[in-house]
Amino acid sequence: MAAQGGNESVTAGRTVAIQFVRAAMSTAAARGIDIRGALSSARITTEMLGHDRVRVTRAQAIQVVTALWKQTDDELAGLGPRPVPRGVFQMITLGLIHAPDLHTALTRFTEFATLTTGMRSELIVSGRRAQVVINSGSDVALDPLVVDVGVAVIHRLASWLIRKQIRLTSVDLPFPAPPYAAEYRLIYGAVPTFDAECAAFSFDSMFLAVPVVRTEPELSAFLRTAPADLLFRTRYDVTTADRVRNILERTDSADWPDTEDVAKRLSVSAQHVRRLLREEGTSFRVIQEDILRDRAIDSLVRGEETIEELSERLGYSEPSAFRRAFRRWTGIAPGSYQTGSPPTA
């Protein structure tokens, strides 16, 4: 790959594994809900759904999940112990916005959630550990999708209320680890424990004393993109890989700093950065490739560039080199993101 290209947009976000879209499709199919229109509008094709390495943009995934919510007219998309009419989440958040601190807000949230959803929720505090626990409230296990949504939404809502990123120290999920288990670190910023007794997440209890600082006008804007938009995190600085990626994302691929430069910005040695990345199962090069892949997918979905223009912008010496890299990343050709028939099931 040649170090060509410039004027590159660095705003493309992280992509989402196709398995999460499949989960939404399975949920819809089990309830007789047809979301093919949403898949077609999101430009998610049958070919894309058939390859495990395929990824979609955050906007595409949100479009599919939002369609599922709207067609069930249920905040839990028909997955909870009982239906929860749309609008309940808004009602709950209106009861939180004037709480004096996060402890009060989360206590209210878990009480409201228990009453409205039929799922027993509780905030447990023990020393420096705060834990939000979610049980099904019945003998029927919760659908994995509603667990993913519930944990993600409560965590992001808590962080949003206090304008601070709450780092999770543990995440427990009450279902077996799926083949795409590694993707969960991108959702929660932590590697979950699977096959747990119940859904739960933990964090440092010091956050509970932080004041709630949001206003009602801010809440109105926040709710316009909730709850689907809360599923996919925008940024964490939890791991070394996250911090390295955040630095690289701010620059064009043609002007990326090398490992030594990134290490200086992190105030550690390059050797130490490489070791930490190895311990996290990644490397400087893998992170660069992930960014290139996500920028490529974002551009192809938006359809504002030809493949030739995109390959040059990303720094490839010729389109054929970019096509080979893209197929290695996703299992399909880049043109598959631009054309194709909508899914038939």
Structure, described:
The structure is a single chain. The protein is of the alpha+beta class. It is built from 15 helices and six strands. Helix content is 46%, strand content 8%. The strands form two sheets. Strands 3-4-6-5 form a four-stranded antiparallel sheet, with helices on one face. Strands 1-2 form a two-stranded antiparallel ribbon. Helix 1 packs parallel to helix 4, helix 10 crosses helix 13 and helix 14 crosses helix 15. The longest helix has 19 residues. The protein starts with 15 loop residues before the first strand and ends in a 15-residue tail after the last helix. 35% of the residues are buried. The N terminus and C terminus are likely disordered.
Strand order of the largest sheet: 3-4-6-5
The backbone outline, from C-alpha atoms, is globular
Structural class: alpha+beta
Relative helix content: 40-55%
Strands, count? 6
% residues in beta strands: 5-15%
Q: What is the domain tally?
A: 3
Number of helices: 15
Q: Which residue ranges are poorly predicted, with pLDDT under 50 across at least 5 consecutive positions?
A: 1-11, 340-345
Compute the CA-based radius of gyration: 21 Å
Q: Give the biggest beta sheet.
A: 4 strands, antiparallel
Summarize the structure.
By secondary structure, this protein is an alpha+beta fold. It contains 15 helices and six strands.
Which keywords apply here?
single chain; 345 residues; alpha+beta; Arc Repressor Mutant, subunit A; 15 helices; 6 strands; 8% strand; globular; disordered N terminus; disordered C terminus
